[in-house]
Amino acid sequence: MSVFVSFGERISPYAFLAVIFVLVEPVLFNTRDTRVHQRKKKYLSPAFSAKNLNDYEPHMSAQVTKLMTCITRHAQGNGEARIDFNEYCDYAFGKPFGFLDKEENHLNLITTIDARGEVLNAIGHLPGLLRPVMKYFYLDPFWPKGLQATSNLASIGKNAYYQRRDQQDSRKDLLSFLFNAKDPDTGSPLSETEIIAESISFIVGGSDTTSSTMTNVVDIVSRLPEIQKQLADELDKAFPGRMSAGWIAEFQPVNQLPVLNAVVRETMRLKPTSSTGLERVTPPGGKVIAGIFIPEGTLVSVPTLNIHHDETAFTVCEPGQSGSPI
Ligand code: HEM
User: Fold this and answer.
1) Which residues pair with 201 in a beta bridge?
2) Are 7 and 298 in contact (CB under 8 A)?
């Protein structure tokens, strides 16, 4: 297989320094401790079950309606209005930050997440001992500014958390699961610090991913008239006479549409939102990867983009064939 495997550093005795860069405390996304991951998975998995995802739909539909209103209003101008779709997509789902109401990135959240992501991607390539001092490296503002953005994100996340906590409503969303979750080890409610840490990770993990995927879908489809036609035909057939201003499709029928789902999946293959390699650590005793023995405790990763563009990783299906979405 022609996939490039990058073998990173051995986990050094200073690995604990990496914890400094974890916002608040380690979360499901970034913990390297399998026991901690299993514990967190126990109380978080129900929040992502098919049934509960269905129950979030009314909140999401309300945001989609606002997004559609924004897009329609811009499109009804003189036809020359430029829509920054990325900005409108950001945070259209999940806990609303008010972008769609105010029609602007009023918390500077998008810039903050971008700056933070870039600096965290870069800092992982520096020796562990240098990492904590990079916020003082004023010769290159990339470092102090990006690291400042990580603290800003923590503040934005904490504020959003306190607002949601003080709402005291029974709205069912990811946070309501965390409020009601019991610590699998002790049976007690989760600590506020743990809830805040997990909810901040949702802001990054759940919004940037969806917004860039939606932006990429629109970008790719807008360049392919044949695909536009196939999509329009599929939607006309699935929802005859229902597509009008203010109408939002329900998830269940949309989930069954083969062309639409193939377009979204192919977009995520071509332009994965996490395109660099996600890191893993080789197990005790080491591991043979792509024919090379890698000693235990070594960081390894394969860039997602490379896997997605390697034909040996996929089975090509003809339309109608088993395994084909179309
Ligand atoms: C197009 C949208 C999305 C993409 C492309 C995406 C991508 C990913 C990827 C690649 C991982 C694996 C990370 C790793 O193994 O290191 C992951 C994990 C995760 N994602 Fe997403 N994600 C998306 C949407 C969301 C949303 C909306 C949420 C909800 C807040 C979410 C929550 C999570 C969580 C909690 C994990 C950690 C799971 C675990 O470690 O067991 N994701 N996502």
Assistant:
1) none
2) yes
Which pLDDT does position 285 carry in this prediction? 97
Q: What is the pTM of this model?
A: 0.80
Nearest to 274 by CA among 16, 1, 18, 30: 30
User: How many whole angstroms separate alpha carbon 78 and alpha carbon 11?
Assistant: 58
Q: What is the pLDDT of residue 19?
A: 37
Residue ranges of the domains in the chain?
6-313
* pLDDT for 42: 93
Residues in CB range of 318: below 8 A, 6 or more apart: 324
pLDDT, position 107: 64
Decide yes or no: CATH 1.10.630.10 for domain 6-313: yes
Read off the DSSP letter of residue 17: G
Q: Which of 37, 42, 209, 266 to mutate to test the pocket of ligand 1 (most atoms within 8 A of CB)?
A: 209
Instruction: State the pLDDT at residue 97.
Output: 62
**Closest C-alpha residue for ligand 1 atom 9:** 274
| Environment class of 85 (CB within 10 Å of its CB; exposed 0-12, middle 13-18, buried 19+) | buried
Tell me if 28 CB under 6 Å of ligand 1.
Answer: yes
Regions of the chain with pLDDT less than 50? 1-21, 89-94
> Is 292:300 a contact under the CB 8 Å cutoff?
no
Q: Note the pLDDT of residue 325.
A: 55
Instruction: Judge if the beta carbon of residue 43 lies within 6 A of ligand 1.
Output: no
Q: Is the dihedral of CA 175, 181, 185, 189 positive or negative?
A: positive
Instruction: Give the three-state DSSP class for 187.
Output: coil
CA 8 remoteness from chain centre: 24
CA distance 188 to 220: 48
Record the tokens describing residue 153, joined without a space: 């994100």
pLDDT (0 to 100) of residue 99: 61
Q: Is 132 in the pocket of ligand 1 (CB under 6 A)?
A: no
For ligand 1, the distance from its centroid to the CA atom of residue 246, given in whole angstroms, is 30
What confidence score (pLDDT) does residue 14 get?
A: 39
